[in-house]
Amino acid sequence: RPPPAAAGSGPVGPGGGRGYAPPAERKRFYQNVSISQGEGGFEINLDHRKLKTPQGKLFTVPSEALAIAVATEWDSQKDTIKFYTMHLTTLCNTALDNPTQRNKMQLIRAAVKFLETDTVCYRVEEPAALAELQRNEWDPVVAWAEKRYNVAIGSSTSILGPNIPASTKETFVSHLASYNMWALQGIEYVITQLKSLILSMGLIDRHITVEKAVLLSRLEEEYQIQRWGSVEWAHDYDLCELRARTAAGTLFVHLCSESLTVKHKLLQD
C-alpha cells in the first residue's frame, strides 16, 4: 500500500490562510528512510516508495541538506508517526502544494503587513514594571532593526499602534524579495509563531537566538507568570512547542536559501 501524504499542522498566514490540518497519528509503516536525487531535486524514500505531498505531488526539495533534515524527521519516528512533530515536512508540503495559492509578492506583502501589529511595537504604560521591561528588552531589538535596514519603526502605547512609514514597509518588501518562494514560506511561518516581523528578521539574520526570540515574543506572558505563577506543565509544554516550531522555521529558511545568499546577508551584519 502506498504511503500516505505527509502532512502536519500547516502554517497560518496573516490573512487566515492555513496549510494542512494535523492528521491522526498512525502506526509506522516503513523500516528505512533514505534520500535520492531526481530531476526536480532531492526525494525522500520510505523503504522503496517515494514520499508524496497531501495533493499527491512527488515530495521533492531543493537542497540535499533540507532532504537530510526531513529524512531525519521521518527516521526519528518510533512505533507511531506523530505528524504534528514534523515541522520541516509540513513546511515542505506547504511550499510544494501552495494550498493558499499565493504568489511571491502576496507572501511578501502578507509578511510585511505584520509590522502594523508587531508585538515589539505595542507598549503598555501600566504597570510601570512591565513598561520598563518592554523598554529594556524590546528597544534594543527595534534599534538594531532600524540600523540594520536603515528604516524608522518606533513604538507606541496607543491601541492603534505605531505609524509605520511607507518607506519602511517598502524597504522590507525589497529585502524579502531577495528570498526564494520556499524561504518566504518559512519566514511567514516564523512570523506567525512570534507575532513579529522584527523578531523574525533578527532571528533569521542571526542577531538573536531562538530562545531569546521566543522569550521576547512572550514577554508580557512571562512577566505575568513570574508575578502570579502558572500551571507548570502547561507553560513548559507551550514554551517547548513554540521553540520547536520557531527553530524549525528558521532552519527551513536557511536550508532553502542558497549558501552564497546566506553568506552575503551575514557579511552585511
UniProtKB/TrEMBL annotation:
Which membrane topology describes this protein? Peripheral membrane protein
The answer on whether this UniProt entry bears the keyword Transit peptide reads yes
Residue ranges of the region described as Disordered: 1-23
Q: Does the keyword Mitochondrion apply?
A: yes
Which keywords has UniProt assigned to this entry? Answer: Chaperone, Membrane, Mitochondrion, Mitochondrion inner membrane, Transit peptide
Please give an example of a GO cellular component term from this record.
Answer: mitochondrial inner membrane
Q: Name one GO biological process term.
A: mitochondrial proton-transporting ATP synthase complex assembly
Q: List, as start-end ranges, the regions of compositional bias called Gly residues.
A: 10-19
Subcellular localization, as worded in the UniProt entry: Mitochondrion inner membrane
- Read off the InterPro entries from this record: ATP12_ATP_synth-F1-assembly, ATP12_ATP_synth-F1-assembly_N, ATP12_ortho_dom_sf
Among Pfam families, the record links this protein to: ATP12 (PF07542)
To which protein family does this belong?
A: Belongs to the ATP12 family.
Its subunit composition reads: Interacts with ATP5F1B; involved in the assembly of the F1 component of the mitochondrial ATP synthase (ATPase). Interacts with FMC1.
Q: What does this protein do?
A: Plays a role in the assembly of the F1 component of the mitochondrial ATP synthase (ATPase).
- Tell me the protein's name: ATP synthase mitochondrial F1 complex assembly factor 2
- The gene name on file is Atpaf2
